[in-house]
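Weekly sync, protein design subgroup
Attendees: M.S., D.O., the rotation student, P.L. (late)

Item 1: inverse folding check
M.S. brought a backbone from last month's batch and wanted to see whether the design step gives back something sensible before we order anything. D.O. pointed out we never logged the input encoding, so this time it goes straight into the notes. Structure tokens as presented (288 positions):
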């Protein structure tokens, strides 16, 4: 079967203990903060970034890794770890250039190593939806599944994983140019909490709520509706500097839905920059 490696990006936001346990390699995104260029979770930590972000008057810019970043890791795996098959798992190609950059890195690496096979995967999703696909793929490697069987499992997971989240404030959507000043001012005055998800690789609005708790209750209704009364799910509760708040959602979800595995993950800075501190939500998928 050969040695299979699983690669993903820092935006998957997989907790570090799980990255280590399942030998998942990550490629960091870039964050341009003024004249500084930071590497996501390498030269900037979650804590340092989220402590600084509320003071920002202008949002940093984020950028996906380049072809050379992916080639460097693929090449390292082939040379130093005798890997001959790689599955490289990325956020939606409709919201990031990572997928295309990884395809270029794949071409470079396979030319350098004729026996190396790389499959680049577009998850059409973000955050721990991408993370679940990487995590379950890495588990499949350790279970001894074949390369083909792992790719089949991934294709089954892609349409199942779903993200729902809410931001504490519209401030970061405003700073990022995603809403105008008028909507920002009215939304802030009314304490509006937007609910968002993804469909076919694009961010979609699920509505708004007038308080955090109403937003949480609506999110729980949505996951309950998606799973059904007898359904079982795996779920990752995600947040940006809002650990206490995400525990409230966890309690609400697990009072209504049969959760067979859960984890808590904090968004990487490259994701959190767009929603801001206080963002909470979850990424889940139903089990057959």
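Designed sequence read out in the meeting:
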């Amino acid at each position: 079967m050969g040695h299979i490696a699983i690669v993903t990006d820092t935006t998957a936001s997989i907790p570090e203990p799980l990255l280590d346990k399942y030998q998942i390699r990550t490629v960091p995104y870039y964050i341009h903060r003024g004249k500084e260029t930071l590497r996501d979770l390498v030269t900037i930590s979650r804590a340092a970034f989220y402590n600084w972000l509320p003071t920002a008057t202008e949002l940093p810019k984020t950028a996906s890794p380049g072809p050379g970043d992916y080639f460097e890791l693929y090449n390292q795996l082939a040379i130093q770890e005798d890997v001959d098959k790689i599955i490289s798992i990325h956020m939606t190609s409709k919201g990031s250039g990572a997928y295309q950059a990884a395809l270029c890195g794949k071409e470079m690496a396979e030319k350098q190593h004729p026996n190396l096979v790389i499959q680049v995967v577009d998850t059409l999703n973000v955050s721990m939806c991408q993370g679940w696909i990487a995590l379950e793929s890495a588990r499949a490697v350790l279970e001894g599944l074949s390369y083909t069987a792992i790719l089949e499992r991934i294709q089954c997971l892609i349409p199942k994983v779903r993200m729902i989240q809410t931001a504490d404030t519209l401030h970061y959507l405003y700073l990022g140019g995603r809403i105008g000043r008028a909507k920002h001012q009215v939304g802030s005055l009314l304490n509006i909490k937007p609910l968002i998800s993804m469909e076919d690789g694009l961010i979609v609005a699920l509505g708004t709520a007038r308080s955090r708790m109403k937003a949480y209750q609506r999110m729980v209704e949505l996951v309950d509706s998606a799973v059904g009364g007898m359904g079982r799910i795996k779920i990752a509760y995600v947040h940006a500097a809002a650990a206490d708040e995400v525990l409230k959602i966890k309690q609400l979800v697990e009072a209504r839905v049969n959760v067979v595995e859960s984890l808590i993950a904090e968004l990487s800075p490259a994701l959190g920059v767009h929603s801001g501190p206080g963002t909470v939500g979850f990424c889940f998928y139903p089990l057959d």
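Discussion: DSSP finds eleven helices and 13 strands in the chain. The longest strand covers residues 258-266.
Action: P.L. to compare against the previous round before Friday.
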